[in-house]
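BUG-82 | component: ligand-complex export | severity: low

The export step for iron/sulfur cluster jobs runs without errors, but we want the raw record kept on the ticket for reference. Input record follows.
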Amino acid sequence: MKNHYNIEWRKEKCINAFDCGKCLEVCPEAVFAIYAPNREEGIPPTEYIISPAMQYFCNGCGACLDVCPKDAIKLTPKVKAE
Ligand code: SF4
Ligand code: SF4
């Protein structure tokens, strides 16, 4: 069952995504990606962002919710159109 969930990543709750990364490790569908939003050539990034880039593939297992220490991920079932 694909494309049945909306995933929201709440930046204000997430701890340092580069140091934690539990959601990235546990997701069986590889939904999440991590990237540095403010890249400057030759300078190590100071900020990393988690993106539910492949949320179409989410199977709703809830593993990311279980491991996130900060409740930073919100999973919402999509309402089917009549
Ligand atoms: S609910 Fe499961 S499949 Fe969906 S993003 Fe979380 S870990 Fe991945
Ligand atoms: S598991 Fe939670 S706190 Fe850790 S990187 Fe993912 S969203 Fe952030």
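Assignee comment: Attached the raw record above. Strands lie at 5-9, 33-35, 49-51, 73-77.
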